[in-house]
Amino acid sequence: MDQSREQRFEALVDVHGDDIANYLRRRCFPLPQADVGDLVEETLIIVWRRLDELSEGALFPWTMGVARNVLRNAKRSSRRRIHYESSVRVQGAVAPAEEIVVAYESIRTALMALGHREREVLTLHFWDGLTAEEIGVSLSISSRAAAVALSRAQQHLRALMGQES
Amino acid sequence: MSDFESQLRAADPLHSLESTPIDFNAMKGRVTSQTRGATTASLRRQLKLLSFATVAILVTTVTWVSLTSDNAVFHSPRLGARTTLKDDGPSVVYGTSAIAFGGVTKTDGSAFAPAPVFAAGAGLSAPVTSGSVYKLNAFNDATSEAQHLATIFGVTGTMAPVPTTAFAAEYQAGDMGSSTGSMQYFIGSQGSPNTGFGTFQYIADGEENWSFNGPITSTVDRATAARDLRAVRTLWSALDTRFTLATPTWMVMQLTPQSNALTATEAQVNFMLSIDGYRTLQGVQFSFDDTGKLVYAEGVNLSIIGSVTFPFQSMAATIDLLNAQQSGDCSPTFVAAGGETLTSTPTITPTTTAPPITEALAGVSILYQPEMMSNGEPWLVPFYQFTESDGTQSEAPLISALGPAYFSVKKSAGTSCTMTLTQP
């Protein structure tokens, strides 16, 4: 086995394993928290397969992007299953955790009023600690677009909460 | 750190979530040693889902409660129409054959409300007996779509590299100081690997150099509205889509000009799209500065390339489906690993009895949503949406206007569900 490749992968897991798991934990709902480990592993499998395609600086945010897609696929599967098991009393779309668990009512109300993309960049920045550049890699957009989106989302949220910048 | 940032960070749900430590060392070993890990993890989750599915048949009321809770969350106020992709839209029920549990007395624990039984109110009838199902263009080349839209939006320059191998592209001028903005195009990864539903984002140059200082209002003066709507109509015409812009809602934001700011006021108009007079839950938005210059836009990019007329199912058949319980991963039948189809015959043993609540459905309308079929073809599919006698939206879910013979979702021999449209 390619030792350097394995070392690179292990370094990613050692440094960012908890970051990836926490990203998934925050947004896991309505999947059981017990599934987080499986989702992390699915994420890492994809990263392991494509490790050679990625530059060092992009590895972590790209991994977060992979986690995002893994989560979406899992939710999609879950939603379809729910539809066909319990057809009657449905349903809003399955809400991500940040829409469900947010502790502060004013923040929650304001976050809910944002668009999905705005909410996503805000939580990636303030909860997951990604920079605008990393958000860009994670969401497959340019750094500039990510910075604009983050700025807009932040100011929009601030305005919704009645706080001046 | 500002108070705003403190509040936002404090709202991190991780603070209130219990977590079980993950054995990363074992995980690293599984992942790096072989591909078995992929199968193991995926299979483990699938097995969990299937086992959960079996249990869910017997505790459907639990599911109802949880879904009702979701619904409540999504009824929170919003500031006007939002761009919605499929993942943001409401959940739906498709027309598969069903196991009839409707009207059965269900468990009535203190936390559980009995499931309603839906009935046709006086005068309820299907708006039409047939209608179009629209075939959408399966976008698979974000680069060419970005170039196409860049031309329409007046973005000049060169295609900038996007730091990903995903389905996204950006058309952006190289010189930020003199460019005309950027156009980004995204293709969602739903359906087959290389196709999906497209969304775009236009950002005028300098748009990042501003901030709000509130307030946001939902009214706009007549002259501004007329000016901005003319610009939208021009753009929309150039986009050459069969969709109509409907239900405009405005957000007018006071901005704090900074060193390179474009404007002091931004007027954003949001539209929901309609097709041949029917609603969709898809949207686009455009933002203009004080002078009427477009400074920001985003939305879905759905392109109709054909249509087929389908019969719509009757109200009676639709209500039967609404009242039916369905089981299994996708359909009432479980497909065994060997391909053998096992018909499930679940039973419900009520612990206490409670009379079912009957909800009369007084009105129905049709709306369309994009769905990606399993063969990779995206279609715009009609759904029924019900209202109660007072005009409020019914708790009945969206349900396909096409009968199970034409539109179905089933469990395939593998682990995934298949969504199929069968033309009449």
How is the main sheet of chain B built?
15 strands, mixed
The shape of chain B is: globular
Q: Assembly type of the shown chains? A: heterodimer
Which CATH first-tier class of the largest domain in chain A would you pick?
A: Mainly Alpha
How would you describe this protein?
The complex is a heterodimer of chains A (165) and B (424). The model of chain A is unreliable at 79-103 (pLDDT under 50). Chain A contains eight helices and no strands. Chain A is 70% helix and 0% strand. With 424 residues, chain B is of the alpha+beta class. Chain B has a 15-stranded mixed β-sheet that branches. Chain B has a two-stranded parallel sheet with strand order 2-16. Chain B is globular and about 55 Å long. Chain B starts with a helix and ends with a strand. The relative contact order of chain B is 0.18.
Give the key terms:
heterodimer, A: 165 residues, mainly alpha, Rna Polymerase Sigma Factor, Chain: A, Arc Repressor Mutant, subunit A, 2 domains, 8 helices, globular, B: 424 residues, alpha+beta, 15-stranded mixed sheet, two-stranded parallel sheet, 7 helices, 21 strands
